[in-house]
Design brief:
Elements lengths: L1 H18 L5 H17 L5 H12 L9 H18 L6 H13 L4 H18 L7 H11 L5 H14 L11 H11 L5 H11 L1
Helix pairs in contact: 1-2, 2-4, 3-4, 3-5, 4-6, 5-6, 6-8, 7-8, 8-10, 9-10
Amino acid sequence: QADIREKQNKLVEQLISLLTSLPGPPARQLIAKNLAILYSTGDVFSVHQTIDKCNELILSKDDSPSYLPTKLAAVVCLGYLYKKLGRILGNSFVTTVENILKAMKNAESQGRYEIMLSLQNILKGLGTSAVPCHRDIYKAARTCLTDRSMAVRCAAAKCLLELQIEATFMWSTDIDSVVTLCFKSFEGSNYEVRMAVSKLLG
């Protein structure tokens, strides 16, 4: 731990610089996991700067295909940071979730997929603290559950499965709506989608 703390700043800088190096899916996961491990085993003093940087990358007006890997890497990083550190990060999650959902409006299927998985991780890390964002996440995930991309449908089912642990409205006032939507998501689906949605129904 002492070794990590001594070199933490440099390691964080290196990992953040990799966000803009057009990382592919495996590299995105590695960068995100390593950042989360660094902060959970070292000091968390600069974690809010890292979160701000990721939010900045997500909100960039650059919509070119070449910038997409950077945006997606930032989304993945935020998911892992909140999953690992959760409530330590305080109320910053409200802004983060807003920014991620904002980015989804213009996202391609790959972006929607990563956003759903990132929101699942955020929910996992925050537990009951995420209540202020439950409705917004629910709305976004509902839309994605009938997405034309099968991968996005799977990710949305996983996100909703995590959400229903604390979002009691899903299995009380909204139960009929959720069940109807689940059956709708089976239309034209594949095996993976059927399995993921069945878990949500079960």
